[in-house]
Design brief:
Layout: H1 11-21, H2 31-42, H3 48-62, H4 89-98, H5 101-109, H6 111-118, H7 126-136, E1 154-155, H8 168-188, H9 195-231, H10 235-250, H11 259-280, E2 290-292, H12 294-307, H13 313-330, E3 335-339, H14 351-363, E4 369-373, H15 379-390, E5 397-400, H16 401-410, H17 415-418, E6 422-424, E7 428-430, E8 434-435, E9 438-443, H18 445-452, H19 478-505, H20 514-519, H21 523-526, E10 537-538, E11 541-544, H22 547-563, H23 569-577, H24 584-592, H25 602-620, E12 633-634, H26 640-646, H27 678-685, E13 696-697, E14 700-703, H28 713-726, E15 731-736, H29 739-747, E16 756-758, E17 763-765, H30 771-782
Parallel strand pairs: 2-3, 3-4, 4-5, 8-10, 9-11, 11-12, 12-13, 14-15
Antiparallel strand pairs: 1-9, 5-15, 6-7, 16-17
Helix pairs in contact: 1-13, 2-3, 3-9, 3-11, 5-6, 8-9, 8-11, 9-10, 11-13, 12-14, 13-14, 14-15, 15-28, 18-19, 19-25, 22-25, 29-30
Length: 787
Amino acid sequence: MALTTLVRCTDRVERLKERALAFADCRVPGERAVLVTKAFRETEGLPMVIRNAKALEKVLLEEGVEIFDDELIVGRPSRYHFAHRGLSEKLEQKLTQEHPEWILDAIEHNPQGALRSWGRRVPQRPELEEVLEYWRGVAPHVPRNPGGVRMRQYRGGGLLRAHIGPNFSKVLRTGFNGIKAEAEARLSTLKTTGAEDVRKRTLYEAIIIVCDAIAEYGRRHAELARRMAEEEEDPRRRAELERIVKTCAWVPANPARDFYEAIQAVYFTHLIHLIVWGLRGCRGGGCGYALGRLDQYLYPYYERDLREGRITREEALELIECLWVKLYAAYDDQHTMIGGVKPDGTDGTNEVSHLCLEATARLGLPRDLGARIHKGTPREFLLKACEALKLGLSVPVLYNDDVIIPAQVRKGAALEDARDYFVVGCVEIHLPNADVRPMAGGIDIIECLELALNDGRCMITGEQLGPKTGDPAGFKSFDELMEAYKGQISHATRLQVAETVKLQLSEPGKFPVPFLSATIDDCMARGLDITEGGARYNATSPCITGIACVADSLAAVKRLVFEERRVSMGELVEALRSNFEGREELRQMLINRAPKFGNDDDYVDLLAREVASYYCHELDKYRDARGGPFRPLIFQAHDPTLYGAIEGRIGATPDGRRREDPPPMSVQPSYGRDLSGPTAALKSVAKIDYLLTAGGISNIIELHPTAVSGEKGAATLAALIRTYFDLGGSQVAVNVVGPEALREAQRHPERYRSLRVRVFGYSDYFVNLDSEVQEYLIQRASSKVGG
C-alpha cells in the first residue's frame, strides 16, 4: 500500500497519541527511587549481582501498575526526557529549571548523578530526602564515564551503559520461565565450592530471581485487567480487557502464542530493560535501547495468525501503532530495524516491514526507524521508504547491507551473525548476542590536526597536549605535515584506548546485569555476566568526527602552501592562532581557492579517505579489556553548536573555519561548501572505506522539497540512494525540508508542532530543539538547493 493513500489512524490510536504527546500516562517520579533504595538497604553484604536482581524484583513486585483507557498494549512508561540526552547541557539546565519534575526523574534513575548535577535543588519530599541521604554515603558502583572529560585530544569510555538490546527472539521462543528453567538446570550441575562455580551459582540464582519477578510483573497486569473488566460496562472495552487478562497472564513468562502476545511480550521486555538501566545508574535512565529486527521476530506470529484467520492486516497495524505510541512516551532513540537479508543470505523483507513503515507514517511521531537495503531488496520496499522520507518524516534511515555485513565479518563476526546486525541508539551497528559498547569515547581528529600545526601544543591555551612533531614552519613538503598529523592521531588513539581499557577493567562485579545476561546467548552457558565478557561477541566502538573539516584543511594547506605557495606555513599558523583576526582576505582565500569535500573532487575526497582509514587501522592494533576488537564509529554524539561555537574548544582550522564556528558532523560536508548538489556530495562521502568502520557512521543529507516533488519524487530519491550504496556508501538519513519552513517554525512554533528533522543521529520535532541547534539546522539546510 502506498503511503500517500493511507487512511488516518484509528480513533483509539489518535487518542493514545494525544495522551503520549502530553506524557499523560507516564509514571509519577519518586516511587521507584524509594523502592530501589529500600532494596539496597535490605541486601547490604550480598553479592552485587544478587543486590541488583533484588532491586529489580522490588520494583516489579511493588511499583504501582496501571492500565489506561483505550490501551491494548499495557505497561506504564517512564518519562525520561522529551528530547535526546545528547543535546546541550545548556538545554538540559533550561529544561530542568522550567520543569522541576525532571529533577525528580533524575533522582529516580540516578541519585548519585542528581547529587552531582543539582544537589539539594529538589522539591522537599521526605521520602526523596531519605533516598538522597542514603546514596550520598554510598560509593558509586561504577566509575563515572569520563567521556566528556577532556584531556582534550581524546576521550575515554567503554562501560556498558545502555546502547544494547535484549534477545527478543529468545524471550518470544521460551518466555522467562524457559530462561529460568535453563538457569536451574545449569545450577544443578554445579558441584564444587571453587571460586568459579560460586560465581556461576550466584549468577544463576540472580537470573532465577529476575525471571520470577518478570513473570509476576505480567500477572500483576493481568490481575488489574481482570478487576477492571469486572467493573467495565462497555461490552467492547470489557472484551479488550479480558484479552489483556489472557495475554498478561501468559507473557512474558511463557512463549508467545500469537501476534498480540508477541507484541505485548516485546513491550514488557523493553520496559523492564528501561527499568534495569535506571537501576544501573545511567544518567537520566540511560538511552539507546534497541528493539532490534522487529519485523524478523514478529513475522512468524503475524503470518500464522493471518493465515488462520485470527487477525486482520488492519488489526496488526493498529497493534504496531499502539507499540509505537508506548515507545514515544518514554524517550526518543529506541531504534527499530526492518528489512535486510536473513542469516541465510536471502531477503528478509516481509509484510511486517511494510506495516512498520505504514505505522510510522500514519502516526507521525518521531520514531528511530532503520531500513536495511541490499542489492536484492524489493523495489516496492525501497520506494515506500522513500515515500516516508518524501513526507518529511526523516525516517527511515537507510543502511547498506552490502557494505555493513562485510565490515562486521572483518571484525570477527560469523557471517550468519553479521547478516543479523541491527542498530542501537542513533546509528551504531550492533550484533545479536553481543556487548559492543558503542559511543565509547573517541579522539578529536580536528584537534589532532591543530596539534600537528603547532608542534603538539594547543593553539588556544599553549598547553603541550600531544607529542612534539616538529615546527610546521620547517616542513618542506605536505608529506611531512601528514607524517606529523598521523603521529598525533596515533598518540591520541593510544591514550584513548588505554583510558577505555582502564575503565573497563574496573567494571566487572561492580554492577552486573542479570536481566541482560539471562537473554544474551553464551552468558548463561559460560556462567559469566555480560559485564564480565559473557556475551558471544565483545567489542568497543569509539568515535571520530569532523572528517570534512580535516580533509578541507589538508587540501587547503597542500594546494595553497605547498603547491601554489600563496601563503607560508608560518603565516598560516599565525593566522590560525589569532583566529584570523585581521586576516579575512587570507581566510576567504582558504575558503574559495581550495577544493572542498562534498563536490566529488578526488583531490580532497581521497584525503578524507586516507585520514579515516589511518585511524581505523590504528584501532586495529588494539583490543579492549575483554579481548574484543575496537570497531571505529564515525559519529558526533553531541550538539554540533557546542562542539566549537559555545565552548570554543577547537582552534581555527586551515579550511577557513573560525574558532567559534561549528565543524561539520560525522562524515557530512561542511555546510555551504558542497555546492555541486546532493549526488556529488554523496559520491564524496562514498569514497571513504566503510569496510573499516564496523561501528557505523552518521550521514545526513538535506533535500529541498522541490527536489523530490511530484509523482516520480520517491523514485528519484530511490535512484539517488541506490547510486550512493552501489558506490560503497554505508548509511544515509534524509531531511526533506527547506530553510523557509524551518525559519517559520522557529518564529511560530505553535503552527509547526509536527515538523520533524534528523539532528545528528535521531529524529525529533524541530520546535523541541534548542534555538542554537535550530539555527545550525537552518544554516545547514540553507546550503542545499536540491537537484
